[in-house]
Amino acid sequence: MISSRAWLALLGAGLSVGLAVGCGSPSAPAGGSSPPVLTVPLSTSLVTAQGTWAVLVMGRSAASHNNFWQLFFQPTGAIQWSLVTPEGVADNGGLVAAGGATATSLLVGFRPSQGLAFSPLAASSDAGKNWTPGLLDAQLADVPGALAISASGQALALLHDGSIEEAPTAAAATAGHWSRLSTLGGLAASAPGRACGLAGVEAVSFGVGDTPMAAGSCAKRGVAGVFAETGGTWQAAGPVLPAAFGGDQVQVLGLASAPDGTAALMAAGASLVAAWSNGIGGSGWMVSAALAAPAGTVKASGFGPGGSVWVLLAGGRAEVIGGTGGAWQALPDVPAGTQVLARVAGGGWEALAASGSNFSVWQLGTAPATGGSWVRGQLIVVPIEYGSSG
Amino acid sequence: MPGMNSGLNPADPTLVSAFRSALLHQGAIALLIIAFLWLVWATARAWRLTTPGAKPASGARARARRAERPAEARARWLLRIGFGVLWIIDGILQAQPKMAGGLATQVIEPTAAASPGWVQHLVNWGGTSWSFHPIQAGAASVWIQVGIGAWLLVAARGRWSRLAGLASVGWGLVVWVFGESFGGIFAPGLSWLTGAPGAVLIYAVAGALIALPEDAWRSPRVGRLLLGGIGVFFIGMAVLQAWPGRGYWQGTLGGQPGTLAGMVQQMSTTSQPHFLSSLLASFSSFAASNGFAVNLVVVIVLAGLGAVFLTGNPRLVRYAVWVGAVFGLADWVLVQDFGFLGGLGTDPNSMIPLILLFSAGYLALTPAPAPVPASAPQEAAEAPAAPDEVVVNGSERGAWAPRALGGKVATASASSVAALAALGVIVLGAAPMASAAANRTADPILALAIAGGTTSLDAPAPDFALTDQNGATVTQASLRGKVVLMTFLDPVCTTDCPIIGQEFKQAGVMLGVKDSDVELVAIVANPTYRGVEFTQAFDREEGLNTVGNWLYLTGSLSALGKVWEAYGVTVENLPAGSMSAHNDLAVVIDRSGNIRDELPADPGPGTTSTRSSFSVLLSQYARQALADS
Question: Does the beta-carbon distance from A87 to B243 stay under 8 Å?
Answer without folding.
Answer: no
